[in-house]
Design brief:
The structure is a homodimer of 230-residue chains. Chain A is an alpha/beta fold and 230 residues long. The first copy, chain A, has helices at 15-25, 38-48, 64-72, 88-97, 109-125, 157-168, 176-183, 192-206, and strands spanning 7-11, 31-35, 52-56, 79-83, 101-104, 131-134, 137-140, 145-148, 151-153, 173-175, 216-219, 223-226. The first copy, chain A, is elongated and about 60 Å long. The structure holds a DNA duplex (30 and 30 nucleotides).
Chain lengths: 230, 230
DNA sequence: CTGGCATCTTGATACTTTCTTGATACCTTT
DNA sequence: AAAGGTATCAAGAAAGTATCAAGATGCCAG
């Protein structure tokens, strides 16, 4: 149905919980979708573009925290964790990975609804586009695809991570140290060479003239910057 | 001192809780402020512009939910409720009034900190850093970009540092020695030449007529001054 | 287990930008 | 006109950057 009710994606592998949530939420206020495992959840996040995700941490195929982390690579969609795990460490890990809220089962339906409304309040007031188009360069963070003049370009994992970092901060200067810390870890803080090589490689794949960069600009003595969206 | 630690406003009338929270949060990561009742909380929200508010619902002078409602009339600052009341109805009321999170006492310090980080994440990412606009000159400190008549100007690291210093103190006179110490270090205190060369270079990049400076003004015998914001 | 493949790391080298410095010209005040 | 402070130019030195390519690493398929 092409309605415009708020879309909620329920990620849980237990049919009982799925049923319970559907009953609780199915008052015609929401358009409900579901996924039974982590990979399905990631796919569904791309395809259904939910306004809120209700995520159980105990999934059969991958760790729930990893699901959060992957979604946060490209999306700001509010994630409310529903879990039986009441240990503080679990909560902290999930929240720091990017979750917005954490509810411990069992919880009241009223509270769940209220917390969903909180999440929706934020979701609706900000709708950022997950596809960055800058002149002839197109980066689809959700699908992990990069196009130059319509042609798909294949990047190595490091190259893609580097480009993603630049895209997320498009327009801002990222210092060498910020990039090195983010991608190679604190051990490489004093080793800008590895970064330069990767920037060079990226440019040769993305730019039409690598020696006259159009997208990835050098800020001498400081770092690099991706051209801002026009 | 004009530090920029995240500001947290603690609203609670019990000294014991105040002490507990101050201890828990006082790891030099936050700048803490407090209010003992609802009216003080509203006033403090205006004056200290906190990045997060920790609010106890049981205040002596007015209902906590009413405090939330009043703040929400003009501010989007994240509000995390800390309360002994565990009734679902209380949670729903507070959340629907505009609170972002609701923690029932007793709670773990780790969880509290994690939920504060969640709130800060949102608070900080939607707060754009100020842009200094002085006539036709525009300095965006967050993006490290300088525009003159809409055209981007590229500055060397030293030139940018110098301009940044001037911008931060726009309108005030900075002595030669202050600038030299700040940018070149104490070893250059008696060497104003290097500063003059850089001021000259900056002017040629920013001013339409470098010999008749409009932005970077010379205070003969004293130092330099950037024209104040109009 | 082994070879092949893609990727990552590292070193050498050429190249570019930025910094420093000295020489010199320019104001402005007395 | 002299003096003290200021502005500009340009060249060498220093610092930072780009690129190629060889060796190291790790993974997958046969």
């Amino acid at each position: 149905m092409g309605n415009n009710l708020p879309r909620i994606l329920i990620v849980d592998d237990e049919p009982a919980i799925q049923r319970f949530l559907r009953t609780a939420l199915d008052s015609c206020e929401f358009s409900l979708h579901q996924a039974e495992n982590g990979h399905a959840a990631l796919a569904a996040t791309v395809t259904t573009k939910p306004d809120v995700i209700l995520l159980d941490l105990g999934l059969p195929d991958m760790d729930g925290v990893e699901v959060i982390r992957r979604i946060r690579q490209w999306s700001q969609v509010p994630i409310v964790v529903l879990s039986v795990r009441d240990r503080e460490g679990d909560k902290v890990k999930a929240l720091d990975a990017g979750a917005d809220d954490y509810l411990t089962k069992p919880f009241g339906v009223g509270e769940l609804l209220a917390r969903i409304r909180v999440a929706l309040r934020r979701s609706l007031q900000q709708a950022p586009e997950p596809v960055y188009r800058i002149d002839e360069l197109e980066v689809d963070l959700a699908r992990r695809r990069v196009l130059v003049r319509g042609e798909e370009v294949s990047l190595t994992p490091t190259e893609y991570e580097l480009l993603r970092l630049l895209v997320v901060h498009a327009g801002k200067v990222l210092t060498h140290r910020q990039i090195l810390k983010q991608i190679w870890g604190v051990g490489y803080l004093e080793q800008p060479h590895v970064l330069r090589v990767n920037i060079s490689n990226l440019r040769h794949k993305l730019e039409s003239d690598a020696s006259r960069p159009h997208y990835i600009l050098t800020e001498t003595g400081v770092g690099y910057r991706l051209k801002a969206k026009s």
